[in-house]
Give the backbone structure.
Amino acid sequence: MKQYAIGIDLGGTMIKYAIVSSDGEIIYQSSTLTPLDKGVNGIVDAFIVAAKAAIDEASQRGVEISGIGIGTPGIVSKDGRTVVGGAENLPEWHNLPLADSLEASLGLPVAIMNDANAMALGESIFGAARNVSDAVFVTVGTGIGGAVMIDGSLWRGYNGRGMELGHISVDAGERTCACGGKGCLEMYASTSALVKRFKELTGNDADGRIIVSLYNSGDEKAIQAMTEHWRYLGRGIASFINIFSPQMVVVGGGIAEAGSFYLENLSKEVLSRALPVSAAETRLVAARLGNTAGCLGAASLAFRNKEI
Ligand SMILES: [Zn+2]
C-alpha cells in the first residue's frame, strides 16, 4: 500500500521539505530560510514549523504521514538518532539528540541521516541509480559532496565519519581548503572554484550559469576555465573509480545539469585517467532528481522504519 512521509533537507541557506509517497512522488513541497543566526534552537524550531505545515497539508489531502526523515550536514550516529557534529556552517550542531526532540514535539517517528547520503539514497531508490548496487555519487556545488554505495549499502566509515569525497587531494599546489588541507578536490573542481578561476582569468564576476553559456558561445577564457574544471573533476572521479570500480558514477549539482556536453567532456577526462580494468563497467550519468533528491532520500528513511 502506498505510504507517505515528510522529507526535510537542511542546507546552509534553505530548509527544503516535502510530502513524498513511497513510490517517489512529491505531492507537496516548500522551503524556508535556514535561520543560521538563531542557533541550534532556531533551526530545530524551524523544523517543527516546517513539519507542522506539511502535516496540516497532508491532513487537508486526507493523507496519513508514516514518519519524518531529515537530511543534515555533518556526522549522524549510526542509529539515525543524533547529530554527532562536523557540519561546517553549523558549529553548534553537535551532540544533538535531534530525532528524540522532534519526536517529542511532533508525535511521529523521526530518523536522520547525513545530507549527502540522503541525496544518494534518493537517487538510488527513485532516480538515476535504481537497481544499481555499486555507485559513487558526486555533487558539484559550492563545495563537492558525495557518497558511496557498496553492494547495496551506503558506506559510512567507522562511526559514520565518512565520506569526504571533496577533500581528496588532487593537486600538490597551494590552494588551502576550509578543512585545513591543501589541494583538495573541491578547491579546484567545485562551482565556486570555477567562478574564482574565471575571475582570475578575466577579472569579471560571473556565476556558473553565465560561464557555461559563455563556453557554449565559444568564449576563450570560459573554455579554458571549463576545461580546467573537467580536468580536475575528472582526476577526482578517476580516483574514485580506481578505488571502488562502481557500476555507475552519478554526478549532480546545478552545473552537471547544464547539458549533455558537460558529462561528455567530463567522461573524456575520467576515461583518460581511470584504470581501464576498473572503469570497464562504469557508467557516468547525471543525477535525475535535482534538488529534490535530499528530501526524497530523507523521506525514504520513514518508509524503512515502518517496514522494520
Ligand atoms: Zn579540504
Summary: Residues 111 and 201 are 46 Å apart (CA to CA). The pocket of zinc ion is lined by residues 167, 177, 179, 181, 184 (CB under 6 Å).
